[in-house]
Structures are given as C-alpha cells and as structure tokens.
Specification:
By secondary structure, the chain is of the alpha/beta class. 42% of the residues lie in helices and 14% in strands. Bound molecules: 3-methyl-2-oxobutanoic acid. The site of 3-methyl-2-oxobutanoic acid has 10 residues, from β6.
Amino acid sequence: MNSVKITPDIIRSMKTDRRGVPSLTVYDYPMTRLFDEAGIPLLLVGDSLGMVVLGYPDTTHVTMEEMEHHVRAAARAKPLGLLAADLPYRAYEDEAQAVANAKRLRIAGAEAVKAEGGRAIINQVRAIIAAGIPYIGHLGMLPQNVVVEGKYRIKGKIEEERAALLADAKALADAGAFAIVLELITPAVAVEISRSIPIPTLGIGSGPDCDGQILVTHDLVGAFPWFTPRFIKPRLATGAQTRETARQWALEVEQHTLKMP
Ligand code: KIV
C-alpha cells in the first residue's frame, strides 16, 4: 500500500534512490483500487484500452472521449499512486491541440499525460509541460504508428535507430519529462538510454535492466488470452479461469444442481 500521495518528483527520485519503478495499466475503478492497494506507484490509463477493453484491432481507434471515460472511472478510486493517461492517436498534432487535450485528461482525473515520440513532438511536449501538466515520454516501438509501419518491430538494432533513440530520450528529459517508457527496444540500447538520462526509464519488452517496468495488466494476469506478447509469461490465467467458472455455473443452472451459499 502506498502511504503517501505519489508525485512526479517521487517517481523521479526513485531513480536516484535506485528503487525500481513498477507501473501497470488500469482502465477502471476496481483495477485502479486493487493496484493502489498493492502499492503500485504509477498507474497508467493506457490507450492499450483500445485492444484489451474495447476490442479494437490497435490503438489508433481510441478517441479522446473514450480515454476521458476510462480516466474518470480510474480516478474515482482516488489512488495514492500517480494516475497518468495516454493522449490518444492524433490528439497531439500541434501544440494547441496537445495542451487542450492534455487539459481534458487532467479534468477527467489524470495527474500526468503520456504521448508517443521524441524530437518529432518536442514542441507539443514543451507546451504541455509549460501548461503545468506532468509528462511521461514514450520511445521505441510506438503502437500508434502501427498502421504506418505495418507491424510491431523491435527498435535499436541498427546504429541509426540507436543514435535517434538516445537523442530522443535526451530531448524528452531536457524538456522536463519525469519518466520515459521504452517499448520493444533492444536491451543493450535500453540500458544505454537508462544510463544517459537522469529520469527513470520504464521498460516494456526492453529487457530487465531499465529503471522500472511497465506492463499492460491484461498481459500480466492473462486476462486477454487471445494474444500475449512474446516477452511476457502471464502470472495468472484470469481469462481461462473466468471462462471455466462461467461454464461450470451455467451447467449447474441448466441441470438444477446449483447450491446457494
Ligand atoms: O497504452 C499502453 O498501455 C501503453 C503501455 C504499453 C506503456 O502505452
């Protein structure tokens, strides 16, 4: 259980204190409340919402209204953990739009926002931070680019990518981001980035040696059994167990063998 309200400064200081930063995605009230009770310091209403909750094929279909709806639900849990939220696809095309949409997520209850990209969106990042909204960067494989790139591909294998990732991470840290998600980056480059900036990196599919780790919760607990990323072994079989529980209960109802507690 978190004993104090977690702030961006506390997340940042975890790197200095050499404490790993665990972070999980949340999409609703019970999940947020449970993970807050578990002491998870950074909770993200990710736009992975699109796939694991809303049934879209990728994150590019998620709207601002959908993000606001789920941020409001998560915020009702009043977590001590810091509640962050993703700016969805095409919600930060220029500075004015980025700030307006970051403010909408703030009003819905998010205490920080995240968007995908480095130097390509640095003006938007600076504008969000100048508006007083704490910011988390996201580099590497950028899910909102999947339609353009055609598939989810590991980044950092070639020198050009490695150099670009290091420059992007520096730009985000210099702009005032308080953490950066590193998604599907080769572990060696993820370590290099982590050592080169003063703010925590949160790895996902980028090896064990980032400053912290972030996961899509459904992958951790097996709640979306139709797809599991290769880099994670679910620790529960929530989906399979839920399906089996429903099957058993339905059978008992059909056969009139149901016992009341
Ligand atoms: O949308 C999301 O869940 C994310 C995590 C994968 C970091 O951005």
